[in-house]
Amino acid sequence: MIWQLLDRSQIELRKMSRMKKILIIEDEESIREDILEILGNCNEFEAIGAEDGLMGVRLAKIHKPDLIICDVTMPELDGYGVLGALRNEPSTSLIPFIFLTARADKSDIRRGMNLGADDYLLKPIGQLELLLAISVRLAKQAAIETHFRVHLNNAMQATQDRLNYSLYHDSLTDLPNRLSLREHLARLLPQAQAEGKLIAVLLIDLDRFKRINDIKGQVFGDNLLQTVAQRLLGCVTQNDVVARTDADEFAIILNAVDPRGEANNVAQSILEEMTRSFVIDRQEVYLTASISVSLYPQDGRDIDSLFKQVNTAMSYAKQQGGNCYQFYTKDIETDTDEQLALEASLHRALEKNEFQVYYQPQIDLLTGVIIGAEALLRWYHPEYGLLSPDKFIPLAEENGAIIAIGEWVLSTVCSQAKEWQEIVSQSKDVNRQNYLKVAVNLSGRQFQQINLTTKIIHLLEETDLDPSCLELEVTEGVIIRDIEASIAKMRELKALGIQISIDDFGTGYSSLSYLKQFPFDTLKIDQCFIRNMPSEPKNKAIAIAIIQMAHSLGLKVIAEGVETRAELELLCQNQCDEIQGYVFSRPIPAEEFRRLLVSDRRLQV
Ligand code: C2E
Ligand code: MG
Ligand code: MG
C-alpha cells in the first residue's frame, strides 16, 4: 500500500486526522472518474467531483475541502480562474491546490505557482504519483496548521501573560500595584492567623512630591519615582513586597519573624536612604518621606482595617511635618478627633477674640539694634490653652478660615506698626534707622486672593502706615504654584512700597538662581540650617553659601531661629544682615515688644 512509502510522521499525522475531503475539478469526465475511483478505493478520502470551473468554485465554498486538484484547461472558467477566485475568498484562500495539466510548459507552471498553486501534476497521471502528491501536500498542510496552532497558542498565552502582568503591576516602576498588594495580603492573612504570626503594613508617602512635578515636569518626576522604587527595594528583603499604591505613595508588606522590630528598621533605613540626594538628568534634588505602620492582627484583622489604620497613622505623620515614621496607635485616633474639634472651634475663634499676635524682634547685625519684628499668631483656646500656629494654620488654610484670620492679623499688625513707627522715628540715635518694619506671614490661600492688593491698600490708608514698614513673608512653595501670577502679584505689592521676603528658604526644592526671577527683597534662611551650624559643617556650608549667593543677587539675608552665641558669631563672620531668634528674644506680646523698643535693648554683636 502506498502509505507504507510515507515516513512515520506522516502516518502518525494521517492517523490523527479525520477522512480528508478532496475536490477534483476536471471537465474531462473519464479522468475525473478515474481519480474519484482511485481516491474512493483508498478509504482515506471523501472525494467530490466538479465538472467545470464554476461548479468547482461553488463546491469548494460549500464543502471547504482539505485539498483541491484542478485541471488547467477548462471552458468558461479555467484552472487559473478557479485558483484566483478561491484565493480571493477568505474561507477558501488557504486550501492546498494542485494543478492537473497535459502541458508542462514552464511559463504555465510559473503562472500557476504565482497565483498560489502548491503543486503540479502532469497528465496522464499514475495512481502512485497521485496519492504521493496528495499525501505530501496534506502532511505539509497539517504541519503548517500545527505550527500556526502552536504559534497562536503561544501568542495568546503571551498576550494573556502581558495582560495579567499589567493588571497587577505599575507600568512606571514595574512594582506590584495596589490590586496585587491586596491579593498578596489576602493570601498572607489566613496563613498568619493559622501560624499566630504578625504582619506589618508600611505606607510610604513622599512629602510635597507634587511640587517636584510642578517645577521639574512630569518626566523628571517619573524618573525620580523609579529611583525611589529602587531605593525602597534596597531597604527590604526578598520575602517582603514593595508596591506602588498611588502616584507618590508606596506600600511594603513585611513578612519577617519580628515584623514590629523589622518595621522600625525598615522605616529608619528608608528615611536614611532619602537623605541622600537624587540625581536625575544631572540635576540634584532632595526628597523626604513620611512613613506609617499598621500591624496585623492588633491594629486590624482584615485588609480594609489595616489600610484604614495605616492611613490614619500617615495623616498623623504628615501633621507632624513629614520626614518621620509613625506606628498606628489609639492615641493618634484621639488626636485626629481633636483636630476635628479644633476645626469646629476655629470658625468661632475670631468672633470670640481668641487670637493674639506676638512679635519676635529682628536685629540688625551691624548695630545690634531692633529693626523690625515678625508677627506670629497665637490662639488662646478656651479648652486647649495657648496654641502655636503650626497646630491651626494648616487647618485654617484647608477650610478657608485663613482668609478672615489673615485679614485680622494684617489689620492688627498695621495699627500696631503705626504706633511703634512713631516711637522709632522720634529716636535721636544715629544707629537707629528711623523706620521699623513688621513682617506678616502670608499663607498660600491668602497670597492667591485676587483682591489681596486692594485690601492691603485700604488697610494702609486706614492705618496711615508707611508701606515700607510692612513686609510680607511668603514661602517658595506658595509662589511657585503659579509663577506668572505670583510675579505679577509681587510686582503689584512692591509697587505700593511693601517689602517681600522668602520665608523658610532652603526647605523647598528650588535653587536661588531659579527664585531670582521673583521680585523680592529679603531671604530668610530657615532655622534648620542655622541649628547646630557650629557643630555641623554641612549646615554651616549651606548657610554661608546662601548668604553669599543672596548678596551677589542684591538680596538681604535674615537668619531665623538663632538660638546660641556660637551660631550668632558664625552669622556675623559671614556677613549675614539680620537675625531673629531666642538668642535675643522669643516672640512676645505687643505690649512687651513696645517696652523692648522704648528701652532700646540691643544685641551684643
Ligand atoms: P515662620 O514664619 O518660619 O516663623 C518662625 C517660627 O520659628 C515661629 O514659630 C517662631 O516662634 C519660631 N522661632 C523663632 N525663633 C526661634 C528659635 O530661636 N528657636 C526655635 N526653635 N524656634 C524659633 P511659630 O510662631 O510657631 O510659627 C510657626 C509658623 O506658623 C510660622 O513659621 C509661619 O509659617 C506660620 N505663621 C505664624 N503666624 C502666622 C500668620 O499670622 N499667618 C500665617 N499665614 N502663618 C503664620
Ligand atoms: Mg515667617
Ligand atoms: Mg520661617
List keywords for this structure.
22 strands; Alpha-Beta Plaits; 23 helices; 3 domains; binds magnesium ion; 8-stranded mixed barrel; 5-stranded parallel beta sheet; alpha/beta; disordered N terminus; Rossmann fold; binds ligand C2E; TIM Barrel; 605 residues; 20% strand
Please write out the topology.
Elements lengths: L7 H9 L3 E6 L3 H14 L2 E6 L2 H11 L3 E5 L7 H9 L9 E5 L4 H10 L3 E4 L4 H42 L9 H18 L3 E8 L2 H8 L1 H16 L7 E6 L2 E6 L4 H17 L2 E3 L2 E3 L3 E8 L6 H17 L5 E3 L2 H20 L5 E10 L5 E12 L3 E3 L1 H11 L2 H24 L11 E5 L2 H5 L3 H12 L6 E6 H4 L3 H13 L3 E7 L6 H4 L6 E4 L1 H4 L6 H16 L3 E5 L4 H9 L4 E3 L7 E2 H10 L6
Parallel strand pairs: 1-2, 1-3, 3-4, 4-5, 11-12, 14-16, 16-17, 17-18, 18-19, 19-20, 20-21
Antiparallel strand pairs: 6-8, 6-11, 7-8, 9-10, 13-14, 13-21, 13-22, 14-15
